[in-house]
Amino acid sequence: MVLPHDSFPLPEGVTGASVWVDRVGERSLVGRNQRGVEIPIGSGEGQVNPGELLKIALLGCAGMSSDRTLARRLGEDFPMRLWAHDESDAEQDRYLRIGEEIQLPLEGLDEKEVAAVVKVFGRAVAAACTVERSIVPGVEVTHRILGAEGEPPAEEDAR
To answer: What is the DSSP letter of 156?
Structure first.
């Protein structure tokens, strides 16, 4: 376990789930976790800005939440890529909507199977994505499985 080792004392509430961010320059920070991961935060080259981190957190949570469920339908080593494109609203200085797009190997699946993948993805994210559940309903988060844009089937068809 890695913890900061500098002049700041550890806060009382530090747990295994705690993360921290250190300032390393003007509007330049480094986010860290206790497993030794470092994420450069800022708007410069090689840095991720906080809005991007929010979207990455949502995408990562959706991917992890749906992984096992999708593996049962698509195979253990299925590829997946998740995207988030929306920008913050300049007037309100907040995200009003974050649309996610998910790329999955849907080739070879029939319409019912694709609909079932869409449904189980949505259910898995709704049930297990702590990040999304923490920010919704404050910001609309949508999910779209690319290549599965048809009408959803009746409830009994997607089981």
So the answer is: G
What's the pTM value of the predicted model, to 2 decimals? 0.85
For residue range 117-142, list pLDDT tens digits in order: 999 999 999 999 999 999 988 888 89
Same domain, 71 and 139: yes
Please check whether residues 60 and 33 belong to one and the same domain.
no
Domains of the chain: total: 2
Name the amino acid, one letter, at 152.
Answer: P
Residue 70 burial (CB count, 10 A): 21
Alpha helices in 1-42 (DSSP H): none
Domain identity same for 98 and 137:
yes
Query: What is d(CA 128, CA 122) in angstroms, rounded to the nearest whole number?
Result: 10
Closest CA to 115 of 98, 123, 60, 84: 123
Range of the domain at 88: 50-158
| Whether 7 and 73 share a structural domain | no
Dihedral of CA 127/86/136/118: which sign? negative
Whole-angstrom Cα distance, residue 52 to residue 41? 10
Identify the H or E element spanning 109: none
